[in-house]
Design brief:
Laminin, about 5% helix, two-stranded antiparallel sheet, signal, single chain, integrin binding, EGF_extracell, repeat, mainly beta
């Protein structure tokens, strides 16, 4: 709806906005327009903007463009460090209200500096198979934060110093809220089948039990 001239949009007639995204005239009713501006919680423009013909115009009184998104759902003001008043403390980048810190920094707003080098941090987080946090978590100052965290606050289905243990491997059909992990004991994603030392119960998830083929006299398949 326009042309770009030296980094700025020159809008065609009937259109306005930094990206020529807002029509000056609207064929929608106010109800139709507002419906198109509702986010997944049915909140118009996430209470962070106003609706114009089915499109959200985000609040931006400071001129820095810190509130954005189709429904104004991203608020990068949440990334501002109260002490330094900088985005992510000047040590990271903000995307949709979350800080992504540079190497050597951590914290919600990248406000803490690691006391070890990035190389040492990576070394401590590297699992025996050579992957950082086993590709199941993120490394923060030499400690792995595993992606799968149990809602109770205890270790979850993925755990271990380098997130090397995945208890979901113990189930043929996985249900994280079920206690039915294999028919034996699950430890670090591997099943130890019951009875211990017996060869009649086997399989990755102890799914094979040849005892079922025995009659009362212990004869297999009659």
């Amino acid at each position: 709806h326009g042309a770009c001239d030296c980094g700025k949009c020159r809008c065609d007639g009937g259109w306005s906005g930094d990206a020529c995204q807002y029509p000056k005239t609207c064929d929608l009713t106010k109800k139709q327009s507002n419906q198109m501006c509702k986010n997944s919680q049915d909140i118009i423009c996430s209470n962070a903007g106003t609706c114009h013909c089915g499109r959200c115009k985000c609040d931006n009184s400071d001129g820095n463009g810190l509130v954005y998104g189709k429904f104004c759902e991203c608020d990068d003001r949440e990334c501002i460090d109260d002490e330094t008043e900088e985005i992510c403390g000047g040590h990271g980048k903000c995307y949709c209200g979350n800080c992504y810190c540079q190497a050597g920094w951590h914290g919600d707003k990248c406000e803490f500096q690691c006391d070890i080098t990035p190389w040492e941090s990576k070394r401590r987080c590297t699992s025996p198979d050579g992957r950082v946090c086993s590709n199941r978590g993120i490394c923060v100052c030499g400690e792995c934060s595993c992606h799968d965290v149990d809602p109770t606050g205890d270790w979850g289905d993925i755990h271990g110093d380098t997130c090397e243990c995945d208890e979901r491997d113990c189930k043929a059909v996985y249900d994280r809220y079920s206690d039915d992990f294999c028919s034996g004991k699950c430890e670090c994603g591997e099943c130890t089948c019951y009875p211990p030392g017996g060869s009649r119960v086997y399989g990755k998830t102890c799914e094979c039990d040849d005892r079922r083929c025995e009659d009362l006299d212990g004869v297999v398949c009659g």
